[in-house]
Design brief:
Helices cover 48% and strands 23% of the residues. The radius of gyration is 46 Å and the shape is elongated. A hairpin with a 5-residue loop joins strand 6 (73-82) and strand 7. It has helices spanning 8-25, 104-110, 115-132, 137-141, 145-160, 179-229, 232-247, and strands spanning 26-29, 33-39, 44-45, 55-58, 64-69, 73-82, 88-99, 165-176, 254-256, 266-268. It comes from Cochleicola gelatinilyticus. It is found in: Membrane.
Amino acid sequence: MDKLPKIGIPVIIIIIILIIVIAKSAVTIDSGEAGVLYKTFKNGVVTDEPPMGEGFHIVAPWNKVFVYEVRQQELFEKMRVLSSNGLEILIEASAWYEPVYKDLGNLHQSLGENYLQRVIQPAIRSAARSVVGRYTPEQLYSSKRDAIQDEIFAETKVILEKQYVQLNEVLVRDVTLPNTIKEAIERKLRQEQESLEYEFRLVTASKEAEKVRIEAQGKADANRILSASLTDKILQDKGIDATVQLSQSPNSKVIVVGGGESGLPLILGNN
């Protein structure tokens, strides 16, 4: 076997070294991610330049690139907190968050890659304890869920704005009370509903009775006015009108004009 030329070995070594250097220097950043450059021999973390975007990058082999996900992410938390009267409440909530893209270098320098555990979880837990502590279990169970969701979001957002993290939304998925408290609240709500229904029936009955009374009073007033306005002459005229109409009916046979009392017509039928 022919021996390699003396110049061949150094070339092979150089090629191997180049391959290793390129491999260590090549950085690929996937979609939804960004890179923070750390310069070993110059000031460390780069904070005065935009993060490295998606795609292929070449960096010096002695430098490092820390890759962060910059898409919106979700944190799901189960928290045990105390209500205003000291009862333990279980809250299930989700927080939607993402790192502030332009401040990714500052985030890496101040908090590092585990910023979720260092700042986001403590922030949302602190806000939840603060907000829930202002309400009673009954308020949390019925009418204040949207309010505590908005307040937890507002308080958490204030904390995270100083930590290079953007909070997009907080969703309170469930509020669980102790069974005894939950049953007592449900029983009270049922009683209140039954009381409201009873009051509604009373009001409806009262209105119906008032309607009947007004109708009866109206009829009585109408009859009184009619009685006062009827004279013998009017009755006679109405009797004559009725006689004319009845005379045109096939069922009427004999009509004696002036045959009845008060001079009204007397009508004789078939029999």
